[in-house]
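Inputs:
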Amino acid sequence: MTQYIIRRLLQAIPLLFIISLILFILMRNTGDPLATMGGRRLTRPEDRERLARQFGLDKPIYVQYLYWLIGNDWTKIDMDGDGIPETPGTRKGVLRGEFGTSLVIRGKPVSTLIWERLPNTLLLMITTEVVIIIFSIIIGVYSALRQYSVIDHLVTTVSFVGYSMPIFFIALASMYLFAVNFKKWGLPYLPTVGMFDPQIGKTPAQVALHMVLPVFSMALISIAGYSRFVRATMLEVMNEDYIRTARAKGLPNFTILFIHALKNASLPLVTIIGLDIPMLLGGAIVTERIFAWPGMGRLFLDHVSRADTPVVMGILMLISVAVIVFQLITDIVYAWLDPRIRYT
Amino acid sequence: MATLLEVRDLTTRFHTLDGVVHAVNGISYTLEEGQTLGIVGESGCGKSASVLSVMRLIPEPPGKIAAGQVIYRGQDLLKLNESQMQHIRGKEIAMVFQDPMTSLNPVLTIGRQISEALIVHMGMTQKQAYQRTLELLNMVGIPQADSRYGDYPHQFSGGMRQRVMIAMALACMPSILIADEPTTALDVTIQAQIIDLVKTLRDRLGMAVIWITHDLGIIAGLAEKVIVMYAGFIVERGDVDDIYDDPRHPYTLALLKSLPRVDRSSKERLATIPGLPPDLLSLPPGCPFAPRCAYVIERCRQENPRLEIVDSHHEIACWVDVGTGRER
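Outputs:
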């Protein structure tokens, strides 16, 4: 097992190199970070050249990638544009743990930007994921047990409606109902934007209250999909011979369902959760935008639209590493759930 | 001997999309304490459905126990609610299934799977259940029980898994053990071991056994009473010796003829029963065996014979006397 983990981690190294190279090339070819830098004024050509030299954007793309990867403090760069490199570089590069500084918010380290937003996103996303898992298991198991009952049909219908609905529609509709109309009807209503009410401050209660609508919107769609999934795998497992054995032993239904059946049915579920979790780090771009949640999704959107390569690369590499790590964790959980699985 | 289990007019149907499958059609039998009853018949003749109905393990829907009574120690099991039934299953009546490869939960240790019944039914603590499980594993002949307690089913061979299944079934000392073709999936030498094991344990624990098989050869040395089933009906019932020495139903006769025997020349072709068992979706009006029967007479196609006593303890459902080939 340890050998397997080490091998998988070693395999991840070339993979991350390839991912970073492709992403870097894509980023550098999809926008000009200097275009919007002058603010409202048009940037003068000489300013553009100066900025390009400062950021190293005048270099060929492979050099830019190299600087991003290993830094440029081992060489000198030409700052004044006379063709002779004279200023020693200061960047350390990703391999030495420095993701560079933002081009848009000048001089602000990427790591600081990410660390400011990551906890907010994690709070929102982990809560959402927990809600999704709990509710989809309950709903999925119930509709598997009462297959073709009225409630099963109802859940199926609602699932399809929920699954087909775009997130922004659910988000706006829930805002309209629970915030706008509830207020109008004189009912207790929910806040729509931000993490807390600035007048009250960032108390846990405030943050929780502000999380209700975004969590609800995101969970609704995923619960629709996941619960169908749980239902399908549970139906399959409930027809297995060992479930009949468990019933023949006279075990109570709860034990049969949640120990004998669910442990078997959870294997495919673990796969999709393992794929989902790293994506949570990126935040939900649309949801965070609508609910003005200061998370990674908004950070990503703000910076990708201005071609801020270091920040975007930082976020994407974080997600890439998370994907690889969670795939490995998924494999380990697999072996723990199903003793027949052994890695060598 | 006291009657332990009495099945009366048990009728089980499956309501499928294609129509109603008449799996069990009004069968009755009794089982006495310590007695071994063999139920034989081809695949799909309602053997398993009949015992699963007794255990109330028929999946509902599509299955439905349409009529009948199952009297166990004076109470009708078909009238119990689900939680009362849970106290019968595993504790009073236990079951061993056909395929030990799929009947054990692959993700739970065998120790856990055996001990959980003890904890639920006997109110044992984890520790007591652990001790008892080790005893059970020893009893069914699994060596090094304490080191195998934490093993998973895939670490056992087919025969060993069936021993685990038996240990699991016997955990709470049931009065009745239902064995639903427990040796079909095993190779012949292992079959013999499992049959011997069940025999030994039956005699030691004094339980009654219902043994289902399509193999008449197994029943001979095991059961006292035999029921022959065809298309969800009991076609012949009697003491084991009567069935083997003096079979009266053409179906039983044909089954016995199709058994390979060591005392016959191996050059002879083994007899087969022509045709297939009837489609249980639409049973013919007469005797269900009539289309395949060598002794068929006109009446067989019109009326389905009822089970009648022909000798002491020997009943058949047939219009024909196989000795003369004429109507009885």
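Remarks. The mean pLDDT of chain A is 85. The longest helix of chain A spans residues 110-145.
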